[in-house]
Design a protein that fits this description.
The complex is a heterodimer of chains A (about 230) and B (about 120).
Chain A (H helix, E strand, L loop, with lengths): L1 E5 L7 H12 L2 E4 L15 H5 L10 E3 L2 E4 L5 H5 L6 H12 L2 E4 L6 H8 L3 E6 L3 H16 L3 E8 L3 H15 L3 E4 L3 H8 L4 H4 L5 H21 L4
Parallel strand pairs in A: 1-5, 1-6, 2-4, 2-5, 6-7, 7-8
Antiparallel strand pairs in A: 3-4
Chain B lengths: L1 E10 L2 E10 L5 E7 L9 E2 L2 E2 L3 E2 L2 E6 L4 E8 L8 E8 L9 H7 L15
The chains are: A alpha/beta (about 230), B mainly beta (about 120).
Chain lengths: ~230, ~120
């Protein structure tokens, strides 16, 4: 199963959700931001090399804090050599070898995001409770629907339980997808700064439950995707 | 699946059926409904012609995830319960859409690496 973690707006915590979801699902996480890489730098070949056809995707995956990562490149030359059309083949190859693949999509709604969403079986929309972020996420949702990629969940990131309780039914209706939340917590932020999944950095943190719940939803989707005969 | 809620009223021997149909799935679906009334279907008009969703006793439309549409028709036949039934639901394919995913992707803003690529990594 290939999961696109997306949402339109920058700075809402897509990478944090992608990393923690990858830890839950024992998945490979792909840094899909080809211009402004956000996940950690690797020590060897990267996604630029893979999308330029210079190296096999399986040879560019490396382990970073118990998470398998395909890092993005960091040079203009590398980005210019990228063939976006190769993205789907790359993630399909990864999912056949490793199982679940989480793609941390860039912000915006340009072709890079479109190709990554179209290559995925399901999308997870990350937003916060602000109207600006919600309307960006809604535009991303409309794109996903047009590209025939179902929305598995909407994550209200950095949102407290009381706000979640107040807006969840509206958000659910607006997106027609299950809604969950991740509170704003210093332990999530601290783990995120070192790119460590919360469950490794602070196993006792109540935040772990939130990512477990998201993982459970994705596992349920995975069973449905399998029944449809995909991967 | 699909949610269908319908009710009928009878006025001066004419049965009016009012319904809403909702696509509760996460993907776009083509939904087909059929009148259960034992008589002719008087479908609504759009200008001079019957509404495009209607063909005889059947109504068909493509609904986005979460989309709800109103459906209505009249008939001289006596009311029955239910007055309308779902006869087919299928996931919309490229033939159902005017525009396939490839065309949608082509129409998005082109991706180009910015000059000041790459913020320094940690």
């Amino acid at each position: 199963m290939i999961v696109a973690v997306t949402g339109g707006k920058g700075g809402v915590g897509k990478s944090t959700v992608a990393l923690n979801l990858a830890a839950e699902l024992d998945a490979v996480v792909v840094d899909g931001d080809l211009s402004t890489a956000d996940l950690p730098r690797g020590s060897g070949p990267d996604l630029h090399d893979v999308l330029a056809g210079r190296i096999d995707p399986l040879d560019a995956v490396e382990e970073f804090w118990n998470v398998q990562l395909l890092p993005s490149g960091r040079t203009l030359q590398g980005a210019r050599a990228v063939d976006l059309q190769a993205f789907e083949t790359v993630v399909t190859r990864l999912t056949r070898r490793f199982g679940p693949v989480i793609v941390d999509c860039p912000a915006g709604l340009a072709q890079d995001v479109g190709v990554e969403i179209a290559s995925a079986d399901v999308a997870v929309l990350v937003t916060n409770a602000s109207e600006a972020a919600l309307s960006n996420a809604e535009r991303t949702r409309d794109l996903a629907v047009t590209l025939d990629t179902a929305v598995a969940a909407v994550v209200l990131n950095e949102t407290g339980h009381s706000t979640y309780d107040r807006i969840r039914s509206d958000v659910r209706r607006r997106f027609n997808a299950p809604v969950t939340y991740v509170p704003k917590r210093t332990d999530i932020r601290a783990a995120g700064e070192d790119w460590v999944p919360v469950r490794d950095a602070s196993p006792e943190s109540p935040a772990c439950e939130r990512f477990e719940e998201l993982g459970d939803r994705l596992r349920a989707c995975r069973r449905r995707v399998h029944r449809r005969g995909v991967h | 699946m699909v949610e269908l809620n319908a009710n009928t009223i009878v006025e001066e021997g004419v049965t009016f059926v009012q319904a809403t149909v909702t696509n509760t799935r996460g993907t776009t679906q083509v939904i087909r409904l059929e009148s259960c009334l034992d008589g002719p279907t008087w479908s609504p008009n759009q200008g001079q012609r019957a509404a495009v969703e209607w063909e005889g006793d059947r109504w068909e439309a493509m609904l986005q995830p979460g989309e709800r549409r109103g459906v209505g028709f009249a008939s001289p036949a006596a009311p029955v319960d239910p007055p309308l039934t779902v006869v087919d639901v299928r996931r919309a394919g490229p033939d159902d859409r005017g525009k396939g995913p490839e065309a949608v992707l082509r129409d998005l803003e082109e991706w180009r690496p910015p000059r000041e690529i790459v913020r320094d990594s940690r």
